[in-house]
Amino acid sequence: KAVASFKMVCIITSLTIGIAIYISRRLTAPLQRLVDTTHRIASGDLSPHKETSSDEIGQLGKAINHMLTVRRSYEQQIAHESKIAQQALKELSIQKYALDQHALVTITDNKGIITFVNDKFIEVSGYNRTELLGQSHQMLTADDQDESVIQGMYQTLSRGQVWHDEICNKHKSGSRYWLDSTIVPYLDDDQHPKNY
What we know:
The protein is α+β, with helices and mostly antiparallel strands. It is 57% helix and 14% strand.
């Protein structure tokens, strides 16, 4: 009788262990697949998660697949918008090139300190780039320039408006030259000029 009872205990114990292993694997295998999916996503693989169960783990798998679909959609949208932005930059580059072939261009900060000059401006003014950058634009204004023109310019620009008139500048050699000038203020978020 003791041997039969021992056999019965062994059979029940083995059966219990077998059932526990089966249930454990049934629970841990889908979780391991989810963990593997998250590792694939982290490494850049956006292929869908393969989970067919309808329990909570299956629902989590479906949520991951939805997240991947949305992410792919966002990436496609970003790629499309990036392509449009690259095309716009290319077109602006062509327009800038055309402008630089014709016009004298300088950019100053809101205190009139020169931060950019194009080659055409260097050619006409007689100064080189290093002599101009970091200097006040006033160094170029001819001494006999009508002060009312300068005052009108400052008043117009301080209101954030485009100014247009003729200015008399002086060449590095000291000679004077007249420019038909347009100055455009670039405004900050508060609509105050941040550079010209």
